[in-house]
Every structure is written in structure tokens, then in C-alpha cells.
Design goal:
7% strand; mainly alpha; two-stranded antiparallel sheet; 214 residues; 67% helix; 9 helices; flat
């Protein structure tokens, strides 16, 4: 197994991690296509199986160890199985980063044998990041979004299906009815902004010591 091919699989795993579970990232938490598509009937299972199969194919090509393959398969089975449970399963699937865990397991195996590809961070020896406090702000925002969904009439409209319920759900606020999709869009935009700000502050904090010595 060549080092170049192993590093190519490592980079592919990094891409899947970001798409599936870290499109919007805040601290140890993140939301990606795997969690968002699970609310659309059929879309979540198609994406989950496709991304999981791609990761396993990359793992086979990288010739990772048998225990790593079993660990990856376990994460992916749990991730796919939970998406089939109505409502509760969708919520668990949104929070459980199955693809991220499977991809990281593969990356650890590859890094242990071939090192880290140039330009990417180690998954075995992660650098200490600057604490910004924005992760807690983002977590509070996620909780508020969840409360908004809970307090809206989304559940009452569920008999019409996911998409009609989400499209027509409203939340009473200050004497007005605010469309739930609007609240979700604003929430996602704010989470994205917080994520970008957090990464910028962390990069600045990691670069500060080097510039101080230069």
C-alpha cells in the first residue's frame, strides 16, 4: 500500500467528515448533511448509506486493520439504524456523528502507519485550541432552536407529513405567528457565523506565539 494512496483516503475521509457532520461546527458539536437530510423522508437514508459505503471503500483501499473496519462498521450501522426510527431516531441521527467517528477511526489507522498528509491536522495529536466561549453560545442557540420547534405547532401538523408540517408550522411570539422555517434559517445562519468567528479566533490564537517570536 503506497503512502500516497493512504493519504488520498485520509483526505477523502476529511471531506466526508465536514460534509456529513461539520458543515456547521461549534466545539465538539456539529451539524452536517447527515443530520439535516434525515428530516427529509428517504433523503437521509440514501445519503447515510452512500457516504458510509464510500468511507468503507476508502478504508479497504487504504488497507486499514480489521479492528478499525469493525469499529467503522459499528458507527455506520448505528448511524443508519437510528434514522429509521420516527422523530426520536431523526433527532438522535442529527446529534450522533456516525460518519465523523468512522472517518476519524480510519484516519487514526492511516496516520499511525503513514503519518499525516501535508496541510491537514493530526487526529492522534490534536493541537490545543484557544478557548473562545463561542461554543457555549452556539450550544445555547441550538437549545433555543429546539425549544422553538417544540413550542410551535409542528407536532400537530405531522399527520400531513414532514415537509408540509415544516413548511406550515408557526411559533407564537409577542402576539405574532412567526413561520418556523424562518426561525430555522436564521438559526442556521447564526450558527454558521459563530462557527466562522470561532475558527478565526482559534487560528489567530494559534498563530500568536509564532508571530511573537518572529
Amino acid at each position: 500500500m503506497s503512502r500516497d494512496k493512504a493519504h488520498s483516503a485520509y483526505r477523502s475521509a476529511e471531506t466526508v467528515k465536514k460534509l456529513s457532520d461539520r458543515v456547521i461546527g461549534f466545539g465538539p458539536f456539529g451539524i452536517g448533511l447527515d443530520g439535516l437530510l434525515t428530516w427529509i423522508p428517504g433523503a437521509g437514508i440514501v445519503y447515510g448509506v452512500g457516504a458510509g459505503g464510500y468511507l468503507l471503500l476508502q478504508a479497504f483501499q487504504a488497507k486499514v486493520g480489521a479492528m478499525t473496519l469493525l469499529r467503522m462498521l459499528g458507527y455506520l450501522v448505528v448511524d443508519t439504524a437510528t434514522s429509521e426510527v420516527p422523530i426520536i431516531g431523526d433527532a438522535i441521527d442529527m446529534l450522533f456523528p456516525g460518519h465523523l467517528l468512522a472517518a476519524t477511526a480510519m484516519q487514526k489507522d492511516i496516520e499511525g502507519r503513514h503519518g499525516v498528509p501535508e496541510g491537514l491536522e493530526s487526529v492522534l495529536r490534536r493541537p490545543k485550541r484557544r478557548r473562545t466561549g463561542l461554543g457555549w453560545v452556539a450550544l445555547l442557540l441550538v437549545i433555543l432552536i429546539g425549544v422553538a420547534v417544540w413550542q410551535s405547532n409542528f407536532g400537530e401538523l405531522m399527520h400531513d407529513g414532514w415537509i408540509p408540517a415544516l413548511s406550515n408550522a408557526q411559533l407564537p411570539m409577542l402576539g405574532f405567528n412567526v413561520a418556523l422555517p424562518l426561525i430555522l434559517i436564521v438559526g442556521m445562519v447564526l450558527l454558521t457565523v459563530l462557527s466562522v468567528l470561532r475558527r478565526g479566533l482559534q487560528r489567530r490564537g494559534m498563530g500568536a506565539p509564532a508571530s511573537a517570536h518572529s
